[in-house]
Request: fold
Amino acid sequence: MAPEEYDCIVIGAGIQGSFTAYHLAKNKKKTLLLEQFILPHSRGSSHGQTRIIRKAYVDDFYASMMGESSELWALLEKEAGVTLYRRTGLLVMGPENGKDFQLIKSTIQRNGVPAVVLQKHEFSQHIPNVNLTHGDAAFVETDAGVLYADRAVRAAQMVFQGHGGVIKDGQKVVQIEPGSMVTVTTRSGVYRAKSLVITVGPWANRVLQLTGLQLPLKRSTKVRGWELHTTLQSLTGITSGQSEKSAIAQSKQARAFPSPSAAHSLGSLSAHNLRRVVRINACYWKEKVPGSYSITNRFPCFIQIQPKEAEHDIYGLPSNEYPGLMKLCYHMGSETDPDERDRQTDRSDVDILSRYISRCFPGLVPEPAVVESCLYTVTPDHHFVLDRHPTYSNIVIGAGFSGHGFKFGPVVGKVLSELSMGQVPSYNLSPFSIRRFHTQPKSAL
Reply:
């Protein structure tokens, strides 16, 4: 039987792949969305009921992208006829004179993000049942809130199918043959397309290996969200004087189709940095007084920068999906294999959270009532990878979302679809370029 043919194939039906397929179908491209597991599933990074949506970032480019992403989330709500976002505000707490806290405040001010600074003597009045750490300051990003994650993935897929898109699940990819027409072989079929987009989360390097490429990814359950900030110049070699137009023009340059033996390995980083995925324990903590931290009582999401208990940040969402239980997580986890995640039993992060809750959230029982898990795939600088394959220009990669990519799904899908259609991307993608890792190329074959 002849292979099924499409304009584009997207591998990986998480939030990034689903939105990529969504944008392609809306651009009248015949698109196939492949998923290795039977849908829906909870094996990757896009499952679960809630995520935080925010613009409070150290880096201006993230705050800028979130402007359009928020608009696209609202559009999907309208198209699908479902509620995907609930405004709660985001409480940001951290050392008043700390570098990260000050950088975030500066970014939201430069980008006109609505925020309210909380004076220390008024903190308890506005945020009851939370103890502000001595020496910390706080502000609230007022338009931030909660995204309903599982519902969002289903909505993007539903609209994609409504525009003629095809979803095939239970399709683990076993072979990719690059060329002017890319051939993708799964355990269940063979498919061909003019372009291919790979958005497979923790399995990124396993699938990219089929194209002769390895990225410096760390598979992680919990990751650092704020501390590593590399400049545009150190990431890309682009100087501050280079215009965005020039950088975008570089990204549009066409590439030929060299032989597979020319495929690249980004091999100059240490082996420890390669293919690391971490497993995060998503913990839910019981309210001592029901409703104390409830979304219905207008308790906000929060991020605690530089907590006294540990090196990495702590974040939380108001009680919502599980009545009477508030979600608090440590933004770092233990290395794991995505296919054997349940063998990872480290609970050191739970101990950190228990100590933090005892000190700062006295209205919660400091022992988790429910513990779930999620996987993060982490790059060394914690920025995404959004780029064309360095050898095959019609293969596009979205990877390394480092535990903070879900809220960007609509705009990530947009730029990945633009790359796959050969268009100039809507944003300067220099911070997300594969080139930033590429110091000593060598054959991967």
Remarks:
- The CA atoms of residues 3 and 189 lie 8 Å apart.
- The mean pLDDT is 84.
- The longest strand covers residues 364-378.
- The two ends are 30 Å apart (CA to CA).
